[in-house]
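Supplementary notes for students who missed Thursday's class. We covered one full example, reproduced here. Read the sequence, then the structure, then the short commentary at the end.
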Amino acid sequence: MTASLPEFFASALPAISEEGRALLCRSVEPLSFTAGQQIFNRGESARGLYFLLFGRIGIRKETGFEDKTQVIALLDHGAPFGERGLLDGMTHGAGAVAVVDSTVALLPLADYVAFTEKMPADGRILLEWVLLQVSRRLEMASERLAHIL
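Structure (token representation):
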């Protein structure tokens, strides 16, 4: 079952003020994807930050062998992804696909900028949370790579 946006943000980001969470709820665009549906492709313009509300998302990259791709991360409930979308003019470095039917919330770049300008302390908390999640994913990927090499 999908958590409501207020429940999701209260659970994932409890340090953000109630007003900040309410603003995030108004700023995001809920999107649903069926299993196998592409959310974005590598090289596409990054629109903003995604939050996985329900389901499972695979992050994949091309292997360099023909048209083959490799899943490099599997994301579950609560995970942020597409973080390059917080940087103006960036493109996605990998693709994202729904592994199962999934619901995400997209925080467009313009709304992220407006959020951080209106609520700078909450914007900092959000950014720190995203960085923590991304650094944990990088650490897990590094551990897997170390076991392979």
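Commentary. The chain has four helices and eight strands. Helices lie at 5-12, 18-27, 109-118, 120-148. If anything here is unclear, bring it to office hours.
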